[in-house]
Amino acid sequence: MNKYDKQYKQKQLRIRLDLEKMYSEMVEDLVSATSILDLPLDEYVYFKNYPTLKKKADELIKNLGTKLNLYINNQLSNVWSLSNLKNDNLIDQTFSKYDKIATDSLKSHNEKALETFRQSKIKGLTLSDRVWSSNANLRQELESALSAGLEKGQSAKSLAKDIKKYLNKPDMRFRRVRDKFGNLKPSKNALSYNPGQGVYRNSQANALRLVKETINRAYREADHLRWSQMPFVTGYKLRNSERKATVCDICARMNGTVFPKSHKFIGIHVGCLCTATPVLCSEADMIRIVNGEVVEVKEPEIPVL
Prior knowledge:
The chain is mainly alpha-helical. It contains eleven helices and three strands, in the order H-H-H-H-H-H-H-H-H-E-H-E-E-H.
């Protein structure tokens, strides 16, 4: 794995920590604004019954969405630039072997394509829409977690810790609400809630998936565009992650498989940590290309899997 793909992998691993910090700060801000003594220990907490608390919760949820949107857009710029650095380096190294300097036309960073990517819709939803959707149930989750966590004599710090725990463990939260309050309607609905394939029962997990998938698509899109503009790149080879524990059976079977560059790689599955390494043309074609000739190199066939 080259140093650029290693940096990208580290960025992906960092996302979880960054989002944990965002959600943690949101919970702490909510608790600091909450007068714990004014909240009943034996009743389920609905924000609508506490106007000041509702206003603060709405404000924090809105601000969290804004932060997530800004975070994703910043990371899109970062990984797009990282891909361009990687591919500029590939061009320079390739041409330097023949004592040649690549023309600027080979080093387009496709800025317009990045803006198009930012504005693109998935199932009719913009990036902002998808961020909002990932947190659509956060208010109810906070009500449930706050209700589950409240105990007599509890400090704000302890309450915040419990809320964070319950937000990330919905099944534990539902059981706690049921045990504490009986078969309340919110708990019964929550226990039977099935959000569907690809959707989690907590907002932080949904946001994490959204951020990782969006950033991954951007990095792969930037690679795909650059390779399509390089006449000496014919395809790419898939390589498994160096962390064997993250390699699934499907990825393991595809390790070393070569695809034509026209076949865009976006990951074999959600959360895929495999990398794609460019495959270059023959030595004879390379010499002609670096000397300025227009050469149509043959791409490898799409493999039969």
